[in-house]
Write a structure and sequence with these properties.
Rossmann fold; 5-stranded mixed beta sheet; alpha/beta; 4-stranded mixed beta sheet; 12 strands; Ubiquitin-like (UB roll); 3 domains; single chain; 35% helix; 269 residues; 25% strand
Length: 269
């Protein structure tokens, strides 16, 4: 073979593959294996999450977590049945589906209810706590209604409450309604009285000079406007504490710094 033929033979032969360092090859295999292990771990995590979420969904929708009992406390005047009816929470409803806020708002529309709190007591009880309004006065006339300090009509008077009358019940009014401003002013006066005086007041009315109270023993207290009520009631209490109270006809505190008092006429006068 001549030199030219040998040169052509070397030029036409394929290039030899470069030799890879065994350490690099081993590292590449390790990286590939780690990638496979990482993907498997993520698949397992995803599978566990799916199983947990699925189990949770099945659990909250299972009969184990539905409403078994609805309990109401504090509804002395409202009545338990009225509260449960307003709450409208049915047995068998999913606990997570109970709209607590909506139930509270419905219950608070009841005339006697000042505040309602509805809570979940897992696994299957809904609890309703009711705070009722306190009557401070009563309307006059047929079918009298009790009234709270905000002028809200509460319900029928039982007849054993010794509360001041604020005048006739408005025509067409019903429990849950709020009185007009004139009668609300009378209610506020009663609510501002010390308990000892409020227990003696029979009626609260209005004349040209302002508010007028009539006590159980017939004494008339002329209050006037609603300014300085505490000071006015302090003066009235002091006058009523006098030993000759039974001779008093009227107490006028319209000008609280210059109260006036009149006496009943004596026999033979």
């Amino acid at each position: 073979m001549n030199v030219g033929t040998l040169a052509r033979s070397r030029q036409g032969s394929p290039a030899a593959s470069p030799r890879i360092d065994p350490r690099i090859a081993r590292r590449r295999r390790e990286v590939a294996a780690e990638g496979i292990r990482r993907r498997r771990r993520w698949l397992w995590v995803l599978l566990v999450v799916v199983l947990v979420v699925g189990a949770a969904v099945l659990l909250v929708r299972s009969p184990l977590l539905d409403v078994d009992h609805v309990r109401a406390v504090g509804a002395t005047r409202t009545g338990r049945e009225a509260v449960l009816s307003a709450a409208a929470i049915q047995s068998g409803t999913q606990m997570t589906s109970v709209d607590l806020g909506a139930a509270e708002r419905r219950i608070e529309r009841l005339p006697w209810v000042a505040d309602a709190t509805v809570t979940r007591d897992w696994p299957g009880t809904v609890r309703i706590n009711v705070i009722e309004r306190v009557p401070v006065a009563v309307t006059d006339g047929p079918s009298p209604l009790l009234v709270d300090r905000d002028g809200r009509l509460l319900g029928s008077a039982r007849g054993d409450e010794h509360l001041a009358s604020i005048g006739p019940r408005p025509v067409g009014s019903a429990p849950g309604d709020v009185l007009a401003s004139v009668q609300r002013a009378r209610v506020r006066v009663v609510a501002a009285m010390p308990a000892s005086l409020a227990s003696e007041v029979e009626t609260v009315s209005m004349d040209r000079e302002g508010l007028v109270l009539v006590l159980g023993d017939g004494i008339v207290v002329e209050v006037g406007n609603t300014s300085r009520l505490r000071a006015k009631f302090d003066v009235v209490a002091a006058r009523l504490a006098q030993p000759d109270r039974d001779t008093i006809a009227t107490i006028n505190v319209t000008a609280v710094d210059a109260p006036a008092l009149t006496r009943k006429p004596t026999d033979g006068a």
